Amino acid sequence: MKQNPLILGIESSCDETAAAVIRGRELLSDEIASSAATQAKYGGVVPEIASRAHAEAVDEVVARALQSANVQKEELDAVAVTYGAGLLGALLVGLSFAKGFAYGLNIPLIGVDHIRGHLAAAYLEDITLEPPFITLLASGGHTAILYAERADKFRVLGGTLDDAAGEAFDKVARVLGLPYPGGPHVEALAREGCPVVPMPKMLKGMGGYDFSYSGLKTAVINYVHTREQKGEPWSRADAAASFQSAALDILVQKTIEGAHETGAKVVTAGGGVAANGYLREKLTKACEEAGLKLVLPVKKHCTDNAAMIASEGLVQYRLGHFSPMSLNAEASIPLRHSL
Ligand code: KG4
Ligand code: ZN
User: Fold this and answer.
1) Can you give the pLDDT at residue 154?
2) I need a surface site. Which of 178, 253, 281, 317 has the fewest CB within 10 A?
């Protein structure tokens, strides 16, 4: 087994068809094609449109990834691919393609859990990064503060009891009349406003580590509806800024507390919400103040991408974990199974 294998990563769990090549932790190429613009017309991801778009794009995106990495496919040591969670039809396009590739080249197939991919994105940002560290995972489906004991062993310190952060951004975006996906649009609107609208407390439970987004979301919905019904003037930008700071400040606070509690000296983050500029600024400042080292993946490695899948592929490769050709796609994977 090589120490620094050449790995092709493929991601197709939602609306991005992505392929990337790494050598060890060095990123050689990082390609993406997105059907998000088409999906935006429907206010969300239409599974059938996503599957078709993947089928049309995957061959070309992989070819581009090999070409820009200046690598011949025969040089590859393994193919890593997202097998779940995600849209079944979408996943099957990437998975079937990867199987064909691995079989044809007689190299190992590595099925990657999409969430583990998000957690592994930080390894590409800092090639010296090693556990233990605290990770803030904030995607469309999951939001939790994790303690990474080893590259393949995570402990949940706390997290959302209901909606994920990304989901809350998407729902609030809809209420504010913003297009899908909501996160970046809420962020842009929030920049024009002030967090002056009172928001409910989010902390829940005895341990003080768990929180709830559903009350926050309802508060925004009620605020908007009440103002509209009464015909009172209100600011969409202030509502966005108030929601954003309430939704994200708690994540920063709990992440720092997690580091203090476990004694971890390093903090990382992953998932689409970690691309949020407000969160990135706050987390950077909080880590500086707490004397913690922050390894924050670049924005395009926070949202869905194939570099992170290749990165987790490397973790699995080094552990000698390979997948059978019978590997199936999984629509949903509970967080405890991912960790
Ligand atoms: O990790 P991701 O790309 O997909 C998975 O769920 O795995 O996360 C997507 C989520 C969406 O809910 C999207 O609105 C949110 O991440 N998101 C953001 C931003 N960019 C993406 N949320 C807040 N601010 C952003 N800039
Ligand atoms: Zn994702």
Assistant:
1) 97
2) 281
Q: Whole-prediction pTM value? A: 0.96
- Residue 83 banded pLDDT, cuts 50, 70, 90: very high
Report the half-sphere exposure of 144 (CA within 13 A, side-chain side): 21
CATH number of 6-120+302-338: 3.30.420.40
Which SS3 state, helix, strand or coil, does residue 159 take? strand
Q: How many Å apart are CA 134 and CA 140, to the nearest integer?
A: 20
- Specify the pLDDT at position 256: 96
Tokens of 306: 């194939």
DSSP characters for 174-193?
Answer: HHTTPPSSHHHHHHHHHTTS
C-alpha 258 – ligand 2 centre gap (Å):
23
Q: Is the CB of residue 86 below 6 angstroms from any atom belonging to ligand 1?
A: no
Distance 118 CA to ligand 2 centre (A): 6
Q: What is the pLDDT of the chain when averaged over all its residues?
A: 95
